[in-house]
């Protein structure tokens, strides 16, 4: 069984290619989806320069240039799957995505992380283009928590869960992977999403959350369990998580967005049936990419 990390970035947190590969080997990861991040510099916090020095690389497109993803894939094609998501507000966004797919072999459209509503017509056009190419779309969703115009570095990305439902309705032929606090807080039917980005460790999961409902309603929605948001959501209530993963075992993907082992450790701690764990840890990622044209 191949283990696939379905969400990570080149040069992330000081990991050059050599260190990245060593980490994959240490964690038993066979392949990794390597995702770009394209947006204007004024939309993301300078904090990212400490963990991803895009400015030092001369990037004019955003924190994770496509060229860095391509560099890793060209040097080690057997270990990485190439991802790319242009800023949908670019007039040439669809042309850029097609070129990345046709010329360089990009197979994933991600990571989308822009300060725009994801049901914007420009974004929908890009999503439909990705669907035509068979490329799943990984999006970062985070609510707007700015209190005033004097709070410039409180980031928001995509809008809210209602925007995502409209996207799913408008793009039925595109597969989407939800990620980040604005997505995972909706695992529970409560109002925490209105107040925090990350739930308290002891916050119970109230069944009937929007995530559960959307997963049942839209077969093109998948879950990327990476980062603190995915881990904390699944770690809140292990009994609920076992039921959630059993029901949606074909549409949950192991991913890290970092270099630790906590997501894989959690999956193994849950003692899921072997067939379910195999799907989550790699099978579902392989199946999604099998549809890439």
Automatic annotation (TrEMBL):
Q: Report domain Amidohydrolase-related positions.
A: 68-289
Domain of life, per lineage: Bacteria
Tell me a Gene Ontology molecular-function term this record carries. hydrolase activity
Q: Which UniProt keywords apply?
A: Hydrolase
InterPro entries per the record?
A: Amidohydro-rel, Metal_Hydrolase
A Pfam family matched in the record: Amidohydro_2
Please give the name of this protein: TIM-barrel fold metal-dependent hydrolase
Q: Which organism is this entry from?
A: Oligosphaera ethanolica
